[in-house]
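Structure tokens please, single chain.
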Amino acid sequence: MILIIDDDSAVRSSLSFMLKRAGYEAQAVPGPREAMEVVRSVVPDLILMDMNFTLSTTGEEGLTLLKQVKIFRPETPVILMTAWGSIQLAVQGMQAGAFDFITKPWNNAALLQRIETALELAGSFKETTQEQNETFDRRHIIGRSQGLMEVLNTIARIAKTNASVLITGESGTGKELIAEAIHINSQRARQPFVKVNLGGISQSLFESEMFGHKKGAFTDASSDRIGRFEMANKGTIFLDEIGDLDPSCQVKLLRVLQDQTFEVLGDSRPRKTDIRVVSATNADLRKMVSERTFREDLFYRINLITVKLPALRERREDIPLLARHFADRQAEANGLPRTEFSADAMQFLSRLPYPGNIRELKNLVERTILVNGKPILDAADFDAQYIRHEDQKVAEGVSLAGMTLDEIERQTILQALERHKGNLSQVATALGISRAALYRRLEKFGISV
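Here you go.
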């Protein structure tokens, strides 16, 4: 099958007609998003791709799409289509892995000849996905649901490349575990894996934390400090909660990612760093780009490949496996005998909504085991803990009638703050969310602690 990617419907129609007359199967799509849906699910024999889309006047979107395609389907030859005025863009595409390019308007006979040559040269390449999956190290990633397996198949393909990866998904879905899996299955596995929670770094400390500082660089700089980028040299840096990064810090981060050089505070000499960047967020960065709260150039720099993690409610068949895993880890960590689950306990756990996802399930299982100390836990044991920690608003007599979801959420946070005397770590744990997510909700609802 030959995949045609062009936002001009007339071009798609004429190419499809020409290819079908020549005996090829063809599929045509209008843009990058639809193209990646096809590329993720099937292996095209060849791709004919326009380099300029209506949303991009610079060709950046076309180059990004080409790089994405070559990571997922390195064996698939790509022929670029471009106008005479964009020859330089086609050259950049060739440097990024395209097989050939043609200019519009094209000669049908010449195009068919190039297609035939590309298919002949690509014929000896064999798909290696099965071999990759056989050697892929999952570590602590638990589950076998279809949604999770699709994620693992994706990162098995991209791990050995140096492509920047953006991991998206709700809070508590395991983005850090996926980032670690990418690192330990990469060519950089023996080098550092440095984790940075950008949501927890203030604007004033960003440069010191990320780039380091020399003694005396500012008032409190009593000694030299190595920054995170220097720590991660030759390895992988994991930028968690990147959607929380202040706009002024986004500029500083972009400069490092563009040329992989930085300056330590108090030292004007530029330093080089060789890093692979993996980022994560539960925010909608595309929406933030359109609202101008997240830089478009930084967005394209960090998300050559996007991996979206399913929420726990979308992979309920994994809940028994996860619950068993958390129970065994709890027993091992505390020297306790193995805890068993009754059938109704597993049914109860599998039905919960889990707004806090895997983190919420983990907290509930561990809490129930520690509080009960029973060899076999039933649904009533989990129900009691779930009501006390997650739905206590009902037990405390708060009427939910007529309240909006935001009002219910605000009331829940206020009660959790009161119960835990303002200890934000305990509040976040009780609610099954991260501290960064709790900070965002406090700001959203105007709650001061």
